Structures
1.
Amino acid sequence: MPTVNDFEKALTPTWCPGCGNFGMWRALKEALEELGWAYEDFAVVWGIGCHGNGADFLNCQGFHTLHGRALPVATGIALSNPDLHVIVEMGDGDGYGIGGNHFIHSCRRNVRMTAIAHNNQIYGLTTGQASPTSDQFMKTPSTPGGVVEEPVNPVGVAVAQGATFVARGFAGDIPHLKELYKEAVAHDGFALVDVFQPCVTWNKVNTFSWFRDRVYKLEETEGYDPTDRTMAFEQSMKTFHELTCAPDECRVPIGVFYREEGSFTYQDGLPQLDRPAFKRAYEPRDVSEAMERFG
Amino acid sequence: MAERNAPGELRVRIGGEAGFGIKAAGQTLARVFASTGLWTFDLTEYPSLIRGGHNNYLLRVGPERLYSHAEGVDVLVALNRETVDLHLDELVDGAAVIFDPDETSTDGWLPSNRIRPVPVPLTKYAREAGGKIMRNTVALGAVLALVHFPLEPLIESLRRQFAHKSPEVAEQNAAAATVGYQYVARMAPDFFLTIEPVEDAAPRVLVDGNEAVALGAAAAGIGFYAAYPMTPATSILHFMAGHGRDMGIVVKHTEDELAAINMVCGAAFTGARAMCATSGGGFALMNEGFGQAGVSESAIVVNVATRPGPATGMPTWTEQSDLLHVIHAAQGEFPRVVLAPGDRTQAFELAWQAFNLADRLQTPVVILTDSYLAENRAAVPPFDLDAVTIDRGKLVAEGDIADHADALHEDGRYLRYRVTDDGVSIRALPGVTGAQQVVNSYEHDEYGYGQRGEIAAERVAQNEKRMRKLDLARTLVPGPVRFGAEPAEADVAVLCWGSTVGPLREAVAQLAEEGVGVAAMQVVTVWPFPAEEVCGFMGAASRTMVVEGNLTGQLERLIREHCLRAPDRSLHRYDGRPFSPERIVAGIKEVL
């Protein structure tokens, strides 16, 4: 089965030195190696953004789609070939901004697939404008007076909207992130892993050291129950409002916020997904009965 | 006052408020006639609302094949007064108006020396049979009695139609139809029209364009269908969803049209035969995804059923105003095929062929229809299911890509976008061993790497490779359909596309009877544009004309561009209504 080195048999990454995407790339390759999948067992779908350039850097069977449309393309794959694991790589502007509608509906749809969000709280590839997850009052070229809007709370939205596995990782903690990925792909339903992935070039606020000073692990937190949806939502709200505070005033949780096992997945309602859809086009389908109804 | 129709023909209009079950009643009547060997063509007009407003259904019935609706009404079933007011002018001399004297006042239109009033206590009889809702059914019985047609086929049809509800409802409807029939048979036995069943007629099916497209897609082995509801394409979603389990089709009603076309691209990536359908507004939202299918070389089929635009436009009416939109949709340059069926049989055939074209060309194929075709049923011969073939082109669906040397680089790696003479590369599905690839919305190199697509030589090679597929397409797509006189001998040569071919066909036949020779051409594949055939047809004729349902002359613009000449005249309609044969006859006579 392919190893980390095999997955690297593609182009050499062009991300900025120190970019958080390197940590996410590493964690994914290690997770894939440990999962023991063959190349033909899974497909990866990318949106557009710095994260999306990663399509050139991972040797796999993948689809580099449009800005904001990774989730529906991935849904089309998942709902037409049950033999493929589907992993989505999307950005914060990509997945929560221009693709926000798909994000909401993917959460409630519970299609068996994994969405990984590269959340750097900034538009990197278009040179540093505010993203939907930028902190309020952050000054950027598109918001010289500071961001007015509340940031999108992806974990809270996902929990509220019915996602059955919601986690948050940090690109600066690769072993922890790798385990989150493995849990997410093993989950039977829609899994979101929102990953804080500092942009070293454009986001001078939410840096690696900013996060290192603040992150803590939910699984090491006494009393935290990731099967309690209300608790997960409260936790997401707290996090969301504390991002601009000083390290001693607030902490940023990472880990599994919410997990619901045994939920009804979208695929569970599709007995016609007993085989890949391409196998239904070997021969013309006999539609004589359907046509006779119009007789 | 309209002209009387051809012998043996009947035109019935049923009108009333939305929610009265106008279309359902009309289609029952159409089934009765079609099942007894007659040909039918219907035209439903309805506003974009669920209750209230004026709905009406026009049914044309005849002993010969019908290709369109026609003007003039022999029998008007007025379920309210508004129907009388709106349609009085359409009545032929001696036409009957079936109405309920308890509900519809006769002030202002009766007495009349040219109208045959047929007052029937529809509501009273319906209530006696079991409920007011069945007054349509009473009226259907009345219509059949009026034209001296037997009642039994209607009773049989109602029993079949309501069998799944309950035997009681079926019997109530049968009783309602019978009382309406008996009442009118006694009261108006001498109506001028007599319609007779045809003995031993060949079987036929009663379908609209959407149903034909859906059947064609189903026959082609569609495995994935996604759509956001939009008139007039919505009923395809209902067909697909209704048959999802028994036919093995995954059907997704998506959050928006962007999701629909992107899901279709994802499904096509796995090798599913995949389609979405929408109208012009939804297709506008799909544009970027459509371009993605072009550059990523995804084999997808999109059905665009036009309604009058722009923006929300006139949702339930018809127009042919999306031709240039569809041909030019999405930024950049990439090959596409646009097929414009003109009738239900073509809609079925082009639908299944669209999937073969998409697979052969690995590029998006559009089936372009409009409300007139999409939502109106006609009796047609059963579709030729035996003719359906599946050609998936250069597809490797299973196994190991190492067994396909043509698909590999010298280094042994798979080249998803290998540059080839015909522009088509070997497409290996995810799941095929060794077929690592990046299917890409970015420009890319032969492996699919986006970063290397920025290299000038790679860009040129991929851009030209894709566009070469259009040359291949020209050898695969159906050509124009010709009918009528030879252009060199004709008084006028007329070009059309899409659903306008129906009324044009009828107009050409009528004019031939009057000694006017019309050569006609329907452009079926509108892209790639069949310049050779169209320009040759134009060049052979002494006088040319284009008939199309839009304001600016969209087919005409293509003709000007490709043939470097303009038609002598053009006939347009853009009020939301389809051309009638009468309107085209009048338009052609003006040219002569």
2.
Amino acid sequence: MVLAPVPSATARLAGLRHELRAAPPAERAARLRELAYSIRRSDLEMISRAGQGHIGGDFSAADIVTVLYFAVLDVRPEEPEWAERDRFVLSKGHAAGILYSALSHAGFFPEAELTTFMEPLSPLNGHPNRRKVPGVETNTGPLGHGFPVAVGMAVAAKLDGSHRRTCVLTGDGELQEGSNWEAAMSASQQRLGRLTVIVDRNRFQQGAATEETSGLDPLDAKWASFGFDVRTVDGHDYEALYQALSEERSLDDRPLCLIADTIKGKGVSFIEDRVEWHHKVPTAEQTAAAFEELTAR
Amino acid sequence: MSTTAAASTTTAAAELHDCRKTFAETLIELAETDPRTVAVCNDSVGSSHLKEFQQRFPDRLVNVGIAEQLMVGAGAGLANGGRVPFVCAAAPFLTGRALEQIKADVAYSRTNVKLCAMSPGFAYGQLGPTHHGVEDFAWLRTLPEMVVLAPADPAETREALLWAHQYDGPVYLRIGRTKVPDLAPHVPFEAGRAACLRDGRDITLIGVGTTVSAALAASAKLAAEGVDARVLNFSTVKPLDEEALLAAAVETGRIITVEEANVHGGLGSAVAEFLAAREPVPMKLLGVRDEFTPTGSPAFLAEYFGIDAEAIARAARELTGAGQGAAA
């Protein structure tokens, strides 16, 4: 592995997770928000420096990823392959920037490494590589891969009788890939109760709205008809995300689908909800303005 | 079904085997000895010979339904959870339908997944080219980290499977359905090493899978005509046994590759790519050419594409310039 963990990161992350879980909801939300905006700022700097990236989808997913890594998932940055860790799969691999930023904030590797994002031979490829970046479970990039792999992870846990959790984050446009529905049928058939699919429902794909391209609505009814428990939450409401993601579920429950209603580019007024920011890169002036907004919020 | 082309030219009494049977027995043995062992399939419990495995280890047979992309992805996920998944499906669907999953989830992610391609090549002869697994060598060979194996008889199938189980990384295994004889002599399987089944000085015949016994039968014909052919079993298509190829080129000067697969990108291409740079010698690449395979029995298709014993001997005579006056 090219990247080394930050010393004592495991204890620090576990301590923070326990504090957040024990905190009153308003305090928990405030602290998660602080972390999420710091993660966004690092991501903005990475993208601005690299001149490449997917800021829209990164920012729509930022709050979900933050809640997972700091309040939900039982992971150990210093032992990224600890057998009983909870699994998180970023199926929308083009949002690698927000994952790298979150992983470095959690101590899987030093934040200074983020400066190499997309540099030649950097471990921080435009899409995540598990062999180069500790904390990445499977290499994604082509869409529709994460959920099938997560099904296998959840089957492995179930065979072990283990309560470790498997969470996969998909884009919404990504659900146009048929492989997801193969996975949905089987996850439900096998009653993978500790598997959670989170849909980053920002309503945009690369070039247009999902509903103008190959519509997904009614998305909740689709998942329900495939045998999932379905919850719809505001994907930027920290407490709602925390409650939904920490819901206790048995090994034999129906799998859970969490539809997170999000805003593409959330956090920067001039980036929010504009399709062109799928992979547009901010200019120096825009970066400064965005950084200011992300600090003020 | 008629016997295979390969079998028809070996000794009349040779018993023929479906290697899937050995595969199934060995997989049960692996499941008994190693609790990590799981089988994953796409509704192919019958055609992958997994019925007994299912009865013995119902929890460890993961049948995802007719869904090859999920099947390969789930295999990668099981490997992530510490299992050793044997992902079983008919060769054309495993490779063609799930090629991107094989690339991203298995090879690029370097997961400990064993891809078991059942009934490859012309095994589903009469069903037509949609069901023929002849592109797999070309497709799989281009993926870094992937080991590509094609055992030639039951004993080698067992040994290759045992090796794949203990190897930590992605492996693609062709498991033959077309019946083959036991190879004589038996050379224990060693990953990455070609087995020399017959030494010779005039030409080298390189077989893989079903074509090894055909190459041996051809060598017997050629010996009777005074052509001394070396026969190599290239059961590891990737990584190539470069040492055996260099020795064959230097010591015999001519090489014929024979595969129940497309020669464009297949084993023949791999051998030619290597030798062109290191020790170019006259070659013939026998196998499927640039056309969709027609309908016919496996034996008919072997004859049609010139990979049966008679065709191999004919190609060897042409390449050596020998036996021009002799009867075929």
3.
Amino acid sequence: MPLTVQIPFTRYLDDQGQPQGDLPGWVDDPPLLLELYRQMNLVRLFDQKCVALQRTGQIGTYASTLGQEAVGTALGRAMTDADVLIPYYRDTATQLQRGVQMQDILLYWGGDERGSAWSAPAAVEDFPICVPIATQACHACGVAAAFRIRQQPRVAVTTCGDGATSKGDFLESLNLAGVWQLPVVFVVNNNQWAISVPRCLQSAAPTLAHKALAAGIPGEQVDGNDVLAVYDRVRTAIERARAGKGPTLIECVTYRLGDHTTSDDASRYRSAEELSEAWKREPLGRLQRFLHQQGLWDEAQEQRLHRELGEQINAAVEAFRALAEPEPSAPFDHLYQQLPAGYAAQRDQWLERAGRLAGGEHG
Amino acid sequence: MAEQNTLCMVEAINLALHRAMTDDPDVVVLGEDVGPNGGVFRATLGLHERFGFRRVMDTPLAETLITGIAVGMAAQGLRPVAEIQFMGFIYPGMEQLVSHASRLRSRTRGRLSCPMVIRTPHGAGIHAPEHHGESTEAMLAHVPGLRVVIPSSPRRAYGLLLAAIADPDPVIFLEPSRLYRSVRQPVTDDGQPLPLDTCFTLREGSDLTLVSWGAALKETLEAAARLAEEGIDCEVIDVATLKPLDAETILASVSKTGRCVVVHEAARSYGPGAEIAALVQEQLFHALQAPVQRVTGFDCVIPYARQEMAYLPDVESICRAALRTLEQAS
């Protein structure tokens, strides 16, 4: 039986930044366009800095967002402060838009739990990034169910990669969101690769958005390298959910231009030709060309922007480096709200061992 | 004065759920068949009618999801009480318990927390189909950040469940299905929780300490009564909260009696009895009059109904273990 269901696909700017047909009215907003462009550049430069810090041993393993700047930037911008983000581990762009500080992100990847203890007002209820694949989709349904139970006009937004759509957690969550008509938006970053496994080995579904159909919810694709398309479709889905009209699955078709993480070497499993083809579709150049065409951007502005962002990033790195070590007792301080009495001896043993190691003794 | 009724354990659990939902609008109940059906054991009977579909939610048949949405709800400050229909079906939710519920507070250094309860029937002995008689509490008690609670009577089920729901951290509440309807007891609906992280001394004695929890306490108390007829005076401790363990009460008892027998239905190897025996010998090696004994389930797959009773610790096995500790020269 042929799979005849057509999934909508939205793209406003082609690879060259040329408008495809009529643009939506909201695009006539230069400050918004410039802000999106600025933010995507921040994400890319910060990402480069993170990789450099990992290579020089200043942070641990890091998952690059290279090539996916448009998805997170648009998504973070489309959410309101009332909404809650339940992110996966390649979501720096969204987190920065939510007000999470670069310093927090460096702390997280630098091996410090304080990196998820941020106090940014918009993000204070946001989940920390989720490493076990697709498990966060269930949390998003729980958050959305809480909004529904309390009758709050808020929306849960969760992200994942293409590999996550193969997991039961993801499918169970889509299913529940459909049955309960939850105010949740599922955003799939289809970057074509789950570490070394390509999209074609992940699913025989014609698109990942098709997975929404069995759950009885709308599914659609957008060009994930077109920030205008992502922003438009995600914002529509969020407002639809807020209005009580139920969940949406949006598959953002993009490409992971970097390795899976700094521990990976993608040249082992994908061709240089594929990568160089993907670079032609990357999101920053596309918006930049559009801004040039609109007379909103020039080379001098570009240079000034890079200088400003570089200073901003360097200041964040300095703040990260300057932060004092975590409290030695922290792993026990936050295990339970109140440490049970029976833990006192272990906590003392921990402090003794941690103190010895901090003092440079070994063995 | 609060009303007092003679209730079985499943009725006491139902009463506690009614009480918690009445007293706190953030308490919600979810799971398979918990709505109009009132749960397959009827623990949630009447909640749907009383509190409505917004707070009493039949979920799709998906245990990973049930556990995971409870995490999301709890992070929002609700107090979800999720039912997993049998402990044998808790395993799909283990990732959510181990990787999320138990560590959300720690991962965010207290920014988010997870005040949720998972209720599930525990243990064998009700001639149910396979996978319906698990006692795998050690798997859960091994996880830092969780609480694992198991009541042994209707009154304790009422008070401990109220405490579990009020607790600011995730609690796994194991309900011994063998005790659901076998014992009745007066229960006062006073809304008073019992303390967590605390053992209960059910019987005081001076010759040896019997340590157990859940349904196995029935046989343990019977063994203590039989031993008393022979002039052997047993102290019986109901552990009640397996994680975190109230070692102090157990150690105080064994330092008095010098002898300890741990009784549990769970498989022997790496079971909670091993932890308790290790604690006792670490702390009380010189006070012990005899090696700590264990009376447990076996390291075999739990048999189907025809042979399941042989799997469970029986009164005779407990008495023999007790006598072994007394035979040792002091």
